[in-house]
Amino acid sequence: MTDATTLPAAAMPPRSARRRILMRRLWRHRSFRVGAGIVAVIVLMAVAAPLLSGGQPNAMSLRNRFAPPSADFIFGADNFGRDIFTRVLYGARISLWIGFASAMLAAAGGALVGMASAWFRKLDGIIMRIMDALLAFPAILLAIGINAALGPQVSSVIIALASAYVPRMARIVRAAALVVRELDYVDAARVSGAGAGRIIFRHILPNVMAPLLVSVTFVFAYAILAEAALSFLGIGPPPPHPSWGNIIAEGRDYSVEAWWIMLFPGLAISLAALGMNLLGDGLRDVLDPRLKIEA
Amino acid sequence: MLKLIAFRIAQAIPVMLVVAVLTFLLMHLLPGDPATIIAGDQADQASIDQIRRDLGLDRPVPVQLWHWIVNLAQGDFGRSLMLNQAVADAVKERLPVTLSLAMLAFAITLPFGIAFGVIAAVWRDTWVDSAVMILALVGVSVPNFWIAILSVILFSVTLGWLPSAGYVPLHDSFSGWLASLIQPAVVLALFQIGYLARMTRSAMLDVLDQDYIRTARAKGVAVNTIIVKHAFRNTLMQVVTVAGYILSLLIGGSVVIEQIFALPGIGRLLVQAIMARDYPVVQGTMLLLGFAFVFINILIDLIYAYVDPRVRYD
Fold first, then answer.
1. Strand partners, A83
2. Can you tell me the distance from the alpha carbon of B44 to that of B209, in angstroms, rounded to the nearest whole number?
3. Which of A42, A213, B27, B198 is the most buried (most CB within 10 A)?
4. In A120-259, where does DSSP find H-type helix?
5. CA torsion angle for A26, A28, A33, A36 (degrees, to 10)?
6. Is the Cβ pair B275, A259 closer than 8 Å?
7. Mind giving me the DSSP string for A270-294?
8. Which residues form the signal peptide (chain A) (predicted)?
9. Across the interface, which of A133, A146, A233 has its CB nearest the CB of B15?
10. Model ipTM?
11. What residue numbers bound the domain in which B32 lies?
């Protein structure tokens, strides 16, 4: 029983030391190191896109239509002569933002629903039946449906993906919160007059953070893949935005003659998802070893 | 066991009701007025109003919801706007394609996913484990539609071994059916194989750490017997619990895969319906799939209770 949530607080070293120990253990974990490295490089490239490429992602040049990869166009050019390298760089901004925002939104929603369900026992039945109903839909289908209802915008993709993942997050948080609410210090807080809000956010939330953080990384990875799939189906962010999925969708018609248009954004998606999954594996092993893989 | 079955089915009724209400509300958020779409560009206001009255769209939302539920209870899922066909018939026509694809992918996923997971766990912390787990990780990280396109370039265009698109019904020709589905099914299965291998490995390692495994080892049971009879059988239990999730991933994934291989299944129907704003079809397909998974989950719970008596008496 080395789970942080079940150890009495008195047996633990002070918070700052605990954090340092945790960081050291994370850093010693190979998957975490490799994953963090991959994600950091991709994020840096997305942020520094204007420095790495002089061009604009939507700048056309008919002279360079279907230019194969070369020194000038290291990833080649597409049917409008747009530089694929630049598009992939700027695409990272949109794809990573959608992945990040939907994972965060799903975590916030899942944490609220899960903790409310665990604390207010009268609501538990209704809330969990609604979550069961949402879980009955395959996640990507739910995202497609919600996205169709909200219209083609970046924000609707984020809301759609987040909603598809709230039920899973809620279940994980609820399970962890049900354990925490029975602990002595929660009773102590209640006896000393703390309200539901204070107990939930001050005492329960910090103790469900570990499983929440682990699932956020896996949902991030999945959201990147799902966003790409939605874009590919033509119901993602609208076309002039070079999201990774959009670039593949546009390059699909030329996949035999101009394979480079779809090859590189696909590699970028795979690498980003791989990095997040490795990061998640590391976090899980260190923070919450008993949590089942949620990829 | 009978009591458990009755209990689980009784529990499913409120969930199905919520599924129905959710799909109804979702589709009422859709932009665009279906009456205007049916009437076409040339229609005047009077005929649009007439269509709206015919469809019952002029009534208050709670009344519409009530009618929707009553119709559902009678097996009426509405009529498609683009196909001039009942939604239930449109889905029934396309169901065999999606089911063939998903079941074939499921049949590929199970043996490979479980085998990889068990191999990695048995040779834990060796190069075999690392190699298998890196493959599994790649499986859950690579977008399946991208692999699908690459696979078509290799196997259909360059080598010419497999058709790149189209579906041959099973009752026309078995070999044609298999040839039309094997490529999409394998591509579709890759993610789930990776997922299941990762799941199986951690479940198997959990089991191998249990006291009864140590006891079996201590009393001199052969290692192979321990792995096959003690560890593997208990690992399988955990696999049963994720079977529903895997099926759900497969059906979700088939939406994209059907699009690439031009398979006339439910996923293609759904995407076409969204593009055409054919909202009875979107509503109906989502609802039918939602219902299907409510039952699949019950079925899996029951299988689980059947194979593991501890769950039954809980």
1. A77
2. 74
3. B198
4. 121-135, 139-150, 154-180, 184-191, 196-198, 205-233, 244-251
5. 20
6. no
7. HHHHHHHHHHHHHHHHHH-TTSPP-
8. none
9. A133
10. 0.85
11. 2-73
Which has the closest alpha carbon to B267: B102, B140, B110, B152? Answer: B102
In terms of average pLDDT, the best of B14-18, B104-108, B257-261, B303-307 is: B104-108
Contact present, A75 and A88 (Cβ < 8 Å): yes
Distance (Å) from the C-alpha of residue B165 to the closest C-alpha of chain A? 14
Nearest CA in chain B to A221: B141
Residue A13, Ramachandran bin (φ over 0: left; ψ between -120 and 50: alpha; else beta):
beta
Tally of structural domains, chain B: 2
Is B313 part of a structural domain of the chain?
no
- Mean pLDDT within B14-40: 75
Is the distance from CB of B144 to CB of B190 less than 8 angstroms?
yes
User: For chain A, how big is the Rg over CA atoms in Å?
Assistant: 22
Query: Which residues in chain A come in under a pLDDT of 70?
Result: 1-13, 67, 71, 73, 81, 289-295
Encoded tokens for B71: 């119709």
Residue B30 within any structural domain of the chain: yes
Residues of B in contact with A278 (CB under 8 A): 137
Other C-beta atoms closer than 10 Å to the C-beta of A275 total 25
Whether residues B60 and B107 share a domain: the answer is no
First and final C-alpha spacing in chain B: 12
Q: Phi and psi (nearest 5°) for A288?
A: -150, 70
- Name residue B221's amino acid: V
B207 near B231, Cβ under 8 Å?
A: yes
Q: Which domains can be identified in chain A, with CATH numbers? A: 17-65+73-287 (1.10.3720.10)
Work out the minimum CA distance from B65 to partner chain A, whole angstroms: 17
Return the half-sphere exposure (C-beta side, CA atoms, 13 A cut-off) of residue A263.
15
| Spatial separation of the C-alpha atoms in residues B198 and B36, rounded to whole Å | 50
Element (H, E) at A239: none
Residue for token pair 């939330």: A205
